[in-house]
Structure formats: structure tokens, C-alpha cells
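Human: Here is a favour to ask of a fellow structure person. Comparing notes only helps if you start from a blank page. I am asking you to supply a protein in sequence and C-alpha cell form. Write it directly below this note and I will take it from there.

Assistant:
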Amino acid sequence: MTGMKLRQMIVLGLETSCDETAAAIYDTASGLRGHCLFSQVETHAPYGGVVPELASRDHIRKLMPLVEAVLAQSGVRPDELSGVAYTAGPGLVGALLVGATTGVGLAFGWGIPAIPVHHMEAHLLATLLEPEPPGFPFVALLVSGGHTLLVEVRGLGMYKILGETLDDAAGEAFDKGAKLLGLPYPGGPQLARLADQGRPGRYALPRPMRNKPGLDFSFSGLKTALALQVRDNGGISALDSGARADLANSYQEAIVDTLVARSCRAIESTGHKRLVIAGGVGANRLLRERLRDGLSRLGATVYYPRTEFCTDNAAMIAFTGCLRLAAAPEAFGDLHVTARPRWPLEELRP
């Protein structure tokens, strides 16, 4: 486990930062013992996006049944647990409070520590759950609906942001592009599937900031360019299925090219030879192919979590909780409820 020798710990992890309700149990001796997840996609689909109040209500209904299910699945009793880790931020504040109050309440009842976990740190470390994890240091590309960051990771809590989006996140760009093309929620995966049916290069779309110095991203201009293409072709109702697929293909290519170019530049500028991909967009097939090819030319290797751990999950929360509890058990003596909708990654400490 990341080269650290730890006394055995078994930690329950809870994830409620947005629209996924999840529970998992991680054991430092035997690894991931169990994980359960309930997706709220059907709840939010009629609205075309996540409705925060509905998300919170669903977390209230689903979280405790998932805790009971994962305890049964893993064969772990509450008196065997070393702590309860919960997502404390960033995220939707109402959703976070459901997980935070539940986690602290369970920890109080069981007489064990409660460990508030930074959601983005957990994503950065999710690849360490795999059979062949990367060693420190590495560069991480965190790409999701809410975040697009390039981060230098030197160890637990040792993070330096190299670049970030100046406007829309990559996942947000996928979702907004899908909406412009008339695709249902959740839009990102729908757009990727449609893009696979399209012809490359039919539409010229920009690669924002690709030739500018630095490692920041911008995707709002690309979204505008797609909207103009749809308008200039008579609107979405005038586009046949082939034209929509071609537009999706060009739009996905532009996003992926931008992510790959910046990631390769980050590898070159830091001298590291490992790139970790985290977040839901990391499941995108084209992104994986292009990164593999681009990094191989630089003598670097790319690492991913398994697909189910690219999106929000509790396995990464339980795992990160184990690392944090092992590193500083004295830091989790009180049972204060922590919920931070905004929580800069660089505020974390080793």
C-alpha cells in the first residue's frame, strides 16, 4: 500500500459530494473489502442536471441502507472498524452535510475517529487502489464535471497545482456540448458514444490555449464555437444524425487534444515519468488512447483507476481515510462535523 508500513486499519468510507451515494470498506491488510453505490442519474435526468435539494434527499434515503449493505458484503462488524471517513468537500453543501453528519454520528456511536476527506485528494490517490500503483512523485490530471487540474503529487498531502481551468471544467464542457447537440443527461458519455459514429475533421473547432505558455486550460470558447456551428447549420432541428455525429467527433477531438497537449507539457516541464488520470472524464476511451501514445513518445507511463473508480465512489474515500488516519491519528480526536463546499487542494498538508 503505497510503500507505507501501516498497522492494520479497517475504515468505512462514505461519499455524498454530489449525485452518487456510496459506501465502502478498506482494510490495510487485505485491501478493498466491499463497496456499494447508488446513482441518482434517473432522478436528475428530467431536469438536465443535478438538482441539489433532490440530491440531498436521496442521500438521506440511501446512505444508511448502503452502510448496512457494505458491512454485510465485507463481513466486517462495527466493532472491528478503526474509523469512519467521509467526503467533507468540495461539493454541494447539502449533500456533503448528509455524509458528514452520518459519518460523525456513526463514529460517535461506535467510539472511533471520524476522518473528513478532501474529495479531490481522494481522486488523486484512487489509482493507488490498483494492483500496480504508481509510486510518488507523479503528475496527475484531474478531469471531472467540476474540476480540471494538473497537479504535481510528491506524497500524501504534498500537492502543487501546475495548471487549472480558467472557466469550464472538461467534464462540464462535455455536458454543455451534449446539451447543444440535443443529447440527454448525463451528456458527457452520450456525446462520446455519438462521436464514435462521426467522421473526423469535418468541422474545424479551436484548441483553446494550446499554443499559449503555461499549463492552464479554457473550454468556454470551444463551447461557443460549437454553438456557432450548430446555429450556422440551421439549428439542432436542421442537423441530420450524420452531421450531429460529425460535430460530436470534432468537439471531443478538440477537448482531448487540449488535455493531452497540456498533460505532455506538464510531464516535460517537471521531468516526472508518471501521469495519473483521475475523475470521470478519465474513462473516456479517446483520451486514454491519445495519452498513451503521447506519453510513450516521452518515455512516460500513464496510470488510471479502474473505470468504476474514475467517477465518484467511496472506495477512494475509505482508502484516503486510512492513509490520513495512519499518518496523524491524533488529528482526529474530536467529532466536529466538517462540510466545505469550497476547499482548495493546496490547503492540505502531509
